[in-house]
């Protein structure tokens, strides 16, 4: 039996939510889990658990599309002779270094986190806590000058420190981009560079997490499951392209306090809604 139009609309809506929230520091996983409380896909719990991670591949492909020239470590002269871009190889080494702490913690605790912490209360608490953190850090940053204003100026030590902050994002509601941006801001990285490094960092992280989730689920998808994944990723890709361009323009003129305020308001709303329910 094929998908009815209601289920397709649900998937499109989830793709839009993913595309918006993956790159804004407001927690995509938190939003997806909360939306699922009200707009539930008629699929198995194991599929939805995998879907909420794998749909992020669409958002990641948007990053690859936009930053392709910065991400590819080769430049072709006269379209035939490849030139190795050493600075890009160096950057990818730092990205891999930053991924190690998160990969280690995820392998150890992912199942426990999903079983015990994927709850509205935990999500709301994380939204509020890091919302306050964004506001406090940005107010503090008004008195400071950024010490790292270029992507290539990020050192291995800085990359590893940012990777340690990324570990915090294993708690739903934290936001992977939010955790890494907060960490980067604290150690003196400019907003634009913090966002760009977060984009680079997302590529291996999300490809790795998606591979783990697909292998745990198994490769035997039904036609309906495969269609849901394709639609969700396609919508997430299209929306992400727009959101990334918006964010990079926004942070050149503004700080992250507005996102902090949004997180606090959303977290309080979630607590109130579920308290009433």
Task: Write the topology of this structure.
Layout: H1 5-21, H2 28-38, H3 45-54, H4 56-66, H5 68-71, E1 74-77, E2 81-84, H6 86-116, H7 120-141, H8 156-166, H9 176-186, H10 191-217, H11 223-250, H12 257-276
Helix pairs in contact: 1-2, 1-11, 3-10, 4-10, 4-11, 6-8, 6-10, 7-9, 7-12, 8-9, 9-10
Task: Jot down its keywords.
3% strand, 2 strands, mainly alpha, 277 residues, 73% helix, two-stranded antiparallel sheet
Your description of this structure?
It is a single chain. The protein has 277 residues and is mainly α. It is 73% helix and 3% strand. It contains 12 helices and 2 strands; from the N terminus they run αααααββααααααα. The longest helix has 31 residues, at 86-116.
Strand order of the largest sheet: 1-2
Helix content class = over 70%
Spans with pLDDT under 50 lasting ≥5 residues?
Answer: none
Number of E-state strands? 2
Q: Report on the biggest sheet.
A: 2 strands, antiparallel
Strand content: under 5%
């Amino acid at each position: 039996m094929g998908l009815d139009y209601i289920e397709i609309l649900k998937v499109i809506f989830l793709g839009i939510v993913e595309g918006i929230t993956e790159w804004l520091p407001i927690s995509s996983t938190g939003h997806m889990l909360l939306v699922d409380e009200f707009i539930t896909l008629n699929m198995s719990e194991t599929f939805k658990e995998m879907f909420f991670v794998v749909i992020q591949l669409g958002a990641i492909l948007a990053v690859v599309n936009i930053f392709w020239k910065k991400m590819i470590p080769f430049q072709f002269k006269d379209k035939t002779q490849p030139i190795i871009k050493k600075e890009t190889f160096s950057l990818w080494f730092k990205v891999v270094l930053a991924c190690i702490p998160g990969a280690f913690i995820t392998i150890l605790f992912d199942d426990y986190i999903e079983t015990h912490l994927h709850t509205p209360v935990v999500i709301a608490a994380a939204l509020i806590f890091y919302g306050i953190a964004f506001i406090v850090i940005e107010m503090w940053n008004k008195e400071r000058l950024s010490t790292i204003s270029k992507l290539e100026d990020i050192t291995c030590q800085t990359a590893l420190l940012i990777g340690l902050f990324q570990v915090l994002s294993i708690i739903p509601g934290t936001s992977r981009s939010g955790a890494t941006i907060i960490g980067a801001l604290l150690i003196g990285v400019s907003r634009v560079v913090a966002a760009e490094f977060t984009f680079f960092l997302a590529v291996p992280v999300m490809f790795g997490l998606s591979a783990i989730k697909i292998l745990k689920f198994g490769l035997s998808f039904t036609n309906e499951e495969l269609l849901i994944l394709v639609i969700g990723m396609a919508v997430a890709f299209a929306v992400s392209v727009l959101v990334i361009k918006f964010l990079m323009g926004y942070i050149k003129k503004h700080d992250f306090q507005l996102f902090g305020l949004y997180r606090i308001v959303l977290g309080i709303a979630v607590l109130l809604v579920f308290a009433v329910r």
